[in-house]
Amino acid sequence: MAFLREFxxxxxxxxxxxxxxxxxxxxxxxxxxxxxxxxxxxxxxGTGAFTTAIQRRLGGRGRHLAVERNERFAGYVRERHPGVxxxxxxxxxxxxxxxGRRADAIVSGLPWSSFGAGTQRAILAAVAAGLTPxxxxxxxxxxxxxxxxxxxxFRRLIGDHFGEVAVGRTIWANLPPAYVYSGRRFS
Length: 187
What we know:
By secondary structure, the protein is of the alpha/beta class. 37% of the residues lie in helices and 24% in strands.
């Protein structure tokens, strides 16, 4: 209900009527390292569907930093996941949040098709700059938005920021159906 309530308050900021499903979540976090002590950044955790999966995948290792602009969602994630460092900030300010560090993986739940060109560019630039060489960025988009202007623009921009971009298959079991983008930073 928290998710639906926030969607009703600000549909373009939330971008969905329900949290991500199990299969979408598994695909979105599959590049979170299973070994070592990685720094994993989560952008737009919402009510924490990806947060739970990231924590499970880390298994107590590394550091998990969640960046959420919506104070209600940030409070919800803080309460449910005390081991996660939650920062209330805009994803465009990722460089300041990281304070000179770089992440091994960045997982995004942001509603890209709701953003204008400037916002998409600024966030993608911050993400690319915030990753270690070889670091991976994953995010998703809803299938029904695939042919909209903002989604087509996002597809071009993600290619401009990452040396390698893969687009996953449509996950029909998600509500609404979605697919995952994975980008790798090489330098």
